[in-house]
Each structure stands twice: as structure tokens, then as C-alpha cells.
């Protein structure tokens, strides 16, 4: 997921995506705790995607407040 692609989305789409990513992160943590996690790199990728979406949401909120 690239930040450029996220900037094209609306804030509502970004919030929906953020919720989905947080659910996935929760499921991955649960799999790790029960030793069922196969792709450990996915945890890092999801965590970084959450950060990207949050950053873009913050940028959009600041831009809206500035106008």
C-alpha cells in the first residue's frame, strides 16, 4: 500500500480501511498467541499500513482545518 494511493481516497474510505487493518492486526496477534501464525512479516506490514492510513487521515484533517 502506498501513501499516494491513500491520498486519493476520501476520509470515510480511509476510516473504513483503518478499521479493517486494526481487525486484521488483532487477528494476527491472536494467531501469534496461539502459535498459528505462519507469515510473521504480515504483522509488521499491517502495523505500518495502519500508520500510513492514520498519517494520511491526519494530513487531510489538518488541510480541512486550514481552509
Automatic annotation (TrEMBL):
PANTHER family named among the record's database cross-references: 60S RIBOSOMAL PROTEIN L35/50S RIBOSOMAL PROTEIN L29 (PTHR10916), LARGE RIBOSOMAL SUBUNIT PROTEIN UL29C (PTHR10916:SF0)
UniProt protein name: Large ribosomal subunit protein uL29
Protein origin, superkingdom: Bacteria
Gene name of the record: rpmC
Keyword hit for Ribosomal protein: yes
Pfam families: Ribosomal_L29
Family from the record: Belongs to the universal ribosomal protein uL29 family.
Organismal lineage: Bacteria, Pseudomonadati, Pseudomonadota, Alphaproteobacteria, Rhodobacterales
HAMAP family the record matches: Ribosomal_uL29
Single annotated GO MF: structural constituent of ribosome
GO biological process assignments: translation
Keyword set, alphabetical order: Ribonucleoprotein, Ribosomal protein
Gene Ontology, cellular component aspect: cytosolic large ribosomal subunit
Keyword Ribosomal protein: yes
